[in-house]
Amino acid sequence: MATRPGSVTLVAVLTYINGILNIIGGVIILLTRDQMAGSNSGAIGGITTAAIISILLGIVTVIVARGLLRGSSVSRVIVAVVMIIDIVNGVLMLFTLQLVSGTIQILWSALILILLFTRRANAFFAGR
Fold it and tell me: If DSSP codes are grouped into helix, strand and coil, which group holds residue 54?
């Protein structure tokens, strides 16, 4: 049985942080969507959708992050899928003129994906 590499522990911590930040960010976006949309009332739907996706992804991410520490392959797959969806949501945020938030979300999720699939991480999850 392979010991847990530091990259997996780091991914678990980053995943917890990502989930919490998604929840907080989604709530903030929901509370400020009218100001964000300004005079463009058509943008409210896109902003609301991005906020709800962020909150839901955050909840799922926090729930499965613990499984990463135990070497759960199911948690690994779920986190990978959520991070991919998170990247897509980050792209949607770019289209609603949330440039900084969208870029940070894309880069953060990509970092988690890269660390989740290193050679040592693959060996750790394969040994479980």
Answer: helix
